[in-house]
Each structure stands twice: as structure tokens, then as C-alpha cells.
């Protein structure tokens, strides 16, 4: 019994006109937020061997998703702690919105810098 070319190649195929095309499914993608994308950019530009190793081992998306989740949690925790320490309250928000926004933006910027230095650029 002779084995056909398609059986030797494996997988499934569909016919379009005179051609048999493989049924290819894209790999499952994992959601990667802003922090994960920043990490990817950093790895690609500054740590190319690590980026390539993660990419070739199919672990890049899971790594980026994990970093993104850690950074998100760390960001909200830092903002909350810094706001409490500097006594930025809802009362201040009600009384002086401009001052509240200025101080909260300062806190957000500091929290972002901490995340970049401890999670993204390592």
C-alpha cells in the first residue's frame, strides 16, 4: 500500500482551486498590557539574547503577561501607599482639585519609575 504525499506531511489540508493548502491555526495569544509591551521593547533593544531565547522557546508571551500582571499590581499598591503616606485624601480632592491632581500625578510618575527600575529594565 502506497502512502500519499499528504499522509507523509501530516496535518490536515483544504483545497482551493487546484491547490491543497494546510489548515494552519495561529498560536493562542496571551493578553499583554502596556507594561508587558514596555518589557518586550526593552528586551528587544537592550537584551537581545534573552529576547531571542524566550521567543524561540515560546515563553515570550507568558513572560510578558507575567511581568505585566506584576507591574499592574505593584503600580496600584505603590500609588495607594504613597497617597496614604502623603495624606492625599478625598477631602483634598473636594477642596482643591488642581492640587490633588498635581500631587497624584507626581505619585503616579514616581510609581512608574520604581516599576521601570525594578521590573521592566532588569
Features:
mainly alpha; single chain; about 70% helix
What does this structure look like?
It is a single chain. The protein has helices spanning 5-9, 34-46, 48-56, 60-85, 90-95, 97-120, and strands at 13-16, 19-22. The chain has 122 residues and is mainly alpha-helical. A two-stranded antiparallel sheet has the order 1-2. Strand 1 (13-16) and strand 2 (19-22) form a beta hairpin.
Helix content: 55-70%
Tell me, rounded to a whole number, the average pLDDT.
90
- The poorly predicted ranges are none
Q: What is the element string, with H for helices and E for strands? A: HEEHHHHH
Strand order of the largest sheet: 1-2
Oligomer: single chain
Topology overview:
Elements: H1 5-9, E1 13-16, E2 19-22, H2 34-46, H3 48-56, H4 60-85, H5 90-95, H6 97-120
Antiparallel strand pairs: 1-2
Helix pairs in contact: 2-3, 2-4, 4-6
Amino acid at each position: 500500500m502506497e502512502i500519499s504525499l499528504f499522509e507523509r506531511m501530516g496535518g490536515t489540508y483544504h483545497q482551493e482551486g487546484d491547490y491543497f493548502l494546510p489548515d494552519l491555526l495561529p498560536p493562542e495569544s496571551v493578553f499583554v498590557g502596556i507594561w508587558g509591551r514596555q518589557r518586550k521593547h526593552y528586551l528587544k533593544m537592550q537584551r537581545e539574547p534573552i529576547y531571542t531565547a524566550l521567543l524561540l522557546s515560546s515563553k515570550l508571551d507568558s513572560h510578558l503577561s507575567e511581568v505585566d500582571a506584576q507591574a499592574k499590581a505593584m503600580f496600584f499598591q505603590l500609588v495607594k501607599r504613597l497617597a496614604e503616606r502623603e495624606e492625599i485624601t478625598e477631602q483634598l480632592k473636594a477642596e482643591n482639585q488642581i492640587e490633588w491632581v498635581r500631587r497624584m500625578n507626581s505619585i503616579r510618575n514616581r510609581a512608574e519609575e520604581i516599576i521601570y527600575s525594578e521590573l521592566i529594565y532588569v
